[in-house]
Amino acid sequence: LPGLHIFAIAFALEVSVGKTNTVMALNGSNVLLPCTFTTCIGFEDLDFTWYFNSTEMIYHGKIKSKTSEPVLVGRNPRVEFVGSTTGKDNNISIVLTDVEFSDAGKYTCHVRNPKEKKAQHNATIFLTVVHRMEETDNTVTLIIVGIVGGLIGLLILFMLIKRVVLFIIKKTQDGKKECLVSSSGNDNTENGLAGSKAEQKAPPKA
Question: How many domains does the chain have?
């Protein structure tokens, strides 16, 4: 039934190796191979296995319940378990020690949950082994960032100068207006101009 199918999907077991499925390691170093799983209804006697290139088992563990840590069933001597399943995340990550060029390839984290009708799921991560890590030349990036930063700085400076100039012009214009108002409002009595009180005086008698 469609309803039961949707219900089953909602409780499906999920396995993840993180945001990226590629890892680069330096020859002779140790490398972390991350893996976590989620299930909505919990788990009992969960079984998880790591495979190299789909066929070679390099780690096999079992987890009784959420309150217990994994129990080792079998492993490659150069593989160490570094996860934990009693905390917030069901982490079943491993570390591959003393990496060699022959270790490059596909690593699959496989999980089976009997409580979920023996649902099983897996996720894959690809390991690349290099002789030395390439140093990234950031000169071009730094030049571009410097130019962009300089242009933004000049733009801000231009806007500040523009505001200062506009402020000065506005203040100057306001000052002129005040002068015009005060001069036009003067009483011209003393000057004897047209319309002044001087015209209203009677002419002197001869």
Answer: 1
Domain of residue 85: give its range.
14-130
Report which residue type is found at 120: Q
Residue 54 resides in a domain: yes
Residue 81 lies in a domain: yes
State the CATH number of the domain containing residue 94.
Answer: 2.60.40.10
Rounded mean pLDDT, 6-12: 49
pTM above 0.70, yes or no: no
Question: Quick count: other Cβ atoms within 10 Å of Cβ 170?
Answer: 10
pLDDT digits (tens, 9 = 90+) for 16-48: 998 889 999 999 999 999 999 998 888 889 999
Q: Which residues contact 29 (CB under 8 A, 6 or more apart)?
A: 98, 99
Burial per residue of 171-189, b for 16 or more beta-carbon CB atoms within 10 angstroms, e otherwise = eeeeeeeeeeeeeeeeeee
Q: Is residue 191 in a domain?
A: no
Beta strands in the chain (DSSP E): 14-16, 22-26, 31-33, 36-38, 46-52, 56-63, 71-75, 79-81, 90-91, 94-96, 105-113, 119-130
